[in-house]
Amino acid sequence: MLKGKTVLLGVTGSIAAYKTAGLASMLVKKGVKVHALMTENATHFINPITFESLTGNKCLVDTFDRNFEFSVEHVALAKQADVVMIAPASANVIGKIAHGIADDMLTTTVMACRCKKILAPAMNTNMYENPILQDNLDICRRYGMEVITPAWGYLACGDTGAGKMPEPEVLYEYILREAGYPGDLAGRRILVTAGPTRESIDPVRYITNHSTGKMGYAIARVAAYRGADVTLVSGPVDLDRPLFVETVPVESAREMFEAVTARSGEQDIIVKAAAVADYRPSTVGTEKIKKSDGDLSIALERTDDILGWLGQNRRDGQFLCDDCGNKCSKYIRLSELTLDEAKEHMEYMARMKRVFDEVFDKTEFRVNAYPSTPTQMGLVFCDELGMLYIDDRTGGRGKMPELIRYDQIASYEEY
């Protein structure tokens, strides 16, 4: 997704500069061509040699440095860049960029760039909340730049508040969204459900299932990367909320039904990847049910049929997708695997090195997958990894893909 892209990392004078080294390393591992540009003040916090060692490219500080091949360097880099990120972005440099001041290598290069520019402010809380700084950030936004909201916490100066630069993993996601995906879903509204539901038995106990929510979260994340306006209705999961997505937390099937139906009318696409309970206790105890010598029976009643309601109330042009492939004519089925077959193929697939698109050769296949038990479907719990067999539309067995992550499955589309 990012392999072969060119990213310019601007580093200004802030103690948070050390985090940018981690970001540079992360990008290089993804095959990105990274060029670092530093202000003179930034060199007091981190040595340019650090970025040169990590990226394999000269770290530029001095606009008039002649120790490189002959070219107008700031213009040459500006033409190559797919995205520019200034992290950390100090109040001084933000002010310069907002008002078109180009007096060093970093600011002159930014001025020459036509690509997307992303700023990650990092400074003392009082500086960040200063109306002048906020006005400058608003100016940058009006010029089409993206401003990442700083994290809140304990700062190097001893204060506690807004002003911390986000972690490299967060900054990476902004770059990935901008340069790694085509933005072809811009203007589309997509609702995704994910995770399990919990149906209370009493105030202590509940009925649930083993859904991790990973597939639904991957679909929501990739749809947002591609520019969609995404709403994620999520049952209780142990996952971080994805960036760029509106997350609506729910607990029970009834809560999920209400959250989905209240928002369904404005959606272009609804993807049901949640494992919603089919039944719930007909009565819920007001206090913990005491154990006794005899057996205990719990009467169950049907939960609301979310997909059925959506099908009956679907508006023209709206696309619905359930998590079971044979219910969705535009999606293919996953072949069933026994546990022994799953283990065998996991070992085989782990040795494969072909990338996802090469495996499928961008054919007519379109993948729908979600984490289930190995004995039920062709997808196996393995942290962030999954496996699957593909059936083509004539019923024949398709190619075996390599070991792939949920986000790779989610980003695959029909061509």
Explain how this protein is built.
It is a single chain. By secondary structure, the protein is α/β, with parallel strands linked by helices. It has 14 helices and 18 strands. The strands form six sheets. It has a five-stranded parallel beta sheet, sandwiched between helices. The protein has a five-stranded parallel beta sheet with strand order 12-11-8-13-16, sandwiched between helices. Strand 6 and strand 7 (160-164) form a beta hairpin. Helix 1 runs parallel beside helix 2 and helix 3 packs across helix 5. The two termini are 17 Å apart.
Write the layout of secondary structure elements.
Layout: E1 6-11, H1 17-29, E2 33-38, H2 48-55, H3 73-80, E3 83-89, H4 91-98, H5 105-112, E4 116-121, H6 125-129, H7 131-142, E5 146-147, E6 151-154, E7 160-164, H8 168-179, E8 189-194, E9 199-200, E10 206-207, H9 214-225, E11 229-234, E12 245-249, H10 253-263, E13 269-272, E14 279-281, E15 300-302, H11 306-312, E16 319-322, H12 339-350, H13 356-360, E17 385-386, E18 404-405, H14 406-411
Give the quaternary arrangement of the chains: single chain
Return the structural class.
alpha/beta
Q: What's the total count of β strands?
A: 18
Per DSSP, the total helix count is 14
Report how far apart the termini are.
17 Å
Strand order of the largest sheet: 2-1-3-4-5
In the predicted model, the low-confidence regions spanning at least 5 consecutive residues are 324-338, 348-405
Rg over alpha carbons: 25 Å
Which range best describes the helical content: under 10%, 10-25%, 25-40%, 40-55%, 55-70% or over 70%?
Answer: 25-40%
Let me know the average pLDDT: 80
Strand portion, in percent?
15-25%
Shape: elongated
Most strands sheet: 5 strands, parallel
